[in-house]
Specification:
By secondary structure, this protein is of the alpha/beta class. The chain is built from 17 helices and 18 strands. A nine-stranded mixed β-sheet has the order 3-4-5-2-1-6-7-11-12, sandwiched between helices. The structure holds adenosine-5'-diphosphate.
């Protein structure tokens, strides 16, 4: 059998992932975890998945055997090259090494001043354009059967395919919306700089209420749409959660699929996690207490085994509903609980959580920043993960919580509703509860949910049962990757008809 890229058999289905982030190379949120883990999980299912990513600073140095695949002269204002290499965990990645677009201090989307990079339209048009060239097989010897686009930053690929003179030869595309709140909106005048024809800027194209929307281009022109949980897939069809896109999405609702994210159970395994003070598992659950004590010590809280430790690991934005937790805080802390917060985002929320730590030094610890290792230690040490999101496409921290026996306390929305079973009387009786849900998403309901959680925590037998059940939930990628694989097959078959 002839060999494809990296020695894979040539009859493997070839999928190109176009994404603005990918763990462990660059991560600001859950999309990175998905883009790092899903392609790996697809490998055993006969999928040759390659990831295309912008070459942010430091990313190329993390790749093994990086080699130039193609030159990209004059790529949106400068010369660049396409480089292919492998991550430490074996993921095959192609990088767009474009110094004029990506080599600068700051984040993938924001500059050091906390504002969007002024040329973000060019930075992600470049990602999308290179994605389209790869799709046509014009760069190197690898041509995908299908292109999987992730969020607005990659969505313009669908436009470049659509307006290419060889459009008939374009492979089909799947656009996954990881968060509908991010729509890639720009001034309509940037259209020329994107090298797209005037006809693209139409109400049935990427024109969106007087702006130009990258996401809308993808929603219009991708062959199929998906999002990261069945509940979110339904929610975004409604005016309430559709963020202005609900009409467009309703028009394509037959081509919209919701698949819950998995997590990398190798990286997130409390038995082998190198970040932890002590390994533990559902069978050796008592060892979790050592992680709780280590966390309390590390964050300067009183080391006590009798208090429930609640934790938050999150972007600090309105979406995540953490202002509700601040409102509920006096009531929550009156129950003799501790709260640890790891997050970064809105300066006002950062200041509020810092203030809370100052006001309650024996009960609240706040770490502002992005710290992957600490996020593991928090999951290991905490008794409960609090996720009060106003909307949540899937959410990953509750899945890590399940795996680490940190019982999720979640708003009943989106993927949180799909992945946590509320410990109501019936679920407790039937032995299926894995967490606590609350609705409506308001401070009072959150406070009640936390009080219910603490009550359960005080019943050691009931608590251990929930923890063990949570830890035994299937949160890995296996079955979810299989769903993507059958979605790809369906899209490819539709194409063949
Ligand atoms: P979103 O993608 O909306 O930010 P998710 O729950 O899907 O939310 O994914 C968030 C991911 O980012 C998780 O892996 C979480 O552990 C991680 N994360 C969020 N904030 C931080 C932080 N301050 N430090 C370390 N990891 C973080």
């Amino acid at each position: 059998m002839r060999s494809g890229v990296d020695g894979l058999p040539s009859d493997y289905v070839k999928i190109l992932f176009v994404t603005p982030e990918c763990y462990p190379l660059v991560k600001t949120g859950g999309l990175a975890d998905v883009a790092g883990a899903l392609p790996m999980a697809l490998g055993p299912m006969g999928v040759d998945a390659q990831v295309l990513l912008p070459g942010y600073p430091g990313v190329r140095a993390q790749l093994h055997s990086a080699q130039r695949v193609a030159r990209l002269p004059g790529l949106f204002g400068g010369n660049a090259e396409l480089v292919r290499g492998t991550t430490a965990h074996g993921l095959s990645v192609m990088l767009i090494d474009a110094p004029h677009l990506y080599h600068r201090p700051g984040g993938p989307y924001l500059g050091p001043d906390g504002k969007d990079w002024p040329d973000n339209h060019l930075r992600f048009a470049a990602l999308s354009w290179v994605g389209a060239q790869l799709a046509f097989g014009r760069l190197g010897d690898w041509k995908p059967d299908l292109v999987h686009l992730h969020d607005w930053q990659a969505a313009l690929t669908a436009a470049y395919l659509r307006f290419d003179k060889e459009r008939a030869a374009a492979p089909p595309t799947v656009l996954t919306i990881h968060n509908l709140a991010f729509q890639g909106l720009f001034e309509p005048s940037v259209r020329k700089a994107l090298q797209l024809p005037a006809e693209a800027m139409h109400v049935d194209g990427m024109e969106y209420w007087g702006t130009l929307s990258f996401l809308k281009a993808g929603v219009q022109w991708a062959s199929h749409l998906s999002t990261v949980s069945p509940t979110y897939a339904r929610e975004i069809l409604t005016p309430n959660d559709g963020m202005g896109f609900d009409g467009l999405l309703r028009a394509r609702s037959n081509e919209l699929t919701g698949i819950v994210n998995g997590i990398d159970t190798g990286l997130w395994d409390p038995e082998t996690d190198p970040h932890l003070a002590a390994p533990f598992s559902a069978r050796k659950l008592t060892a979790k207490a050592k992680n709780t004590a280590a966390l309390q010590r590390e964050l300067g809280l009183p080391v006590r085994s009798d208090v429930p430790v609640l934790a938050v690991v999150s972007r600090l934005t309105a979406q995540k509903g953490l202002d509700l937790l601040l409102d509920a805080l006096p009531r929550v802390l009156a129950t003799d609980a501790q709260l640890v917060v790891l997050g970064t985002g809105d300066t006002a929320l950062e200041a509020d959580f810092r203030d809370a730590a100052e006001a309650y030094p024996t009960q609240v610890a706040t770490v502002i920043g992005f710290d992957e290792a600490l996020s593991h230690r928090l999951q290991a040490g905490a008794h409960a993960m609090v996720v009060p999101s106003r909307f949540e496409p899937c959410g990953l921290t509750q899945l890590y919580g399940l795996r680490y026996g940190a019982i999720p306390v979640v708003a009943r929305v989106g993927g949180l509703a799909d992945t946590v079973i509320d410990a109501n009387e019936a679920a407790l009786h039937d032995g299926v509860a894995t967490g606590v849900q609350f609705s409506p998403v308001e401070a009072d309901a959150l406070a009640v949910a936390i009080e219910r959680t603490i009550e359960l925590f005080r019943d050691k037998v009931a608590w251990q049962k929930i923890q063990k059940r949570a830890m035994s939930r299937d949160v890995g990628w296996g079955s979810r990757a299989a769903q993507y694989e059958s979605l790809y097959a369906k899209v490819l078959a539709g194409r063949a008809q």
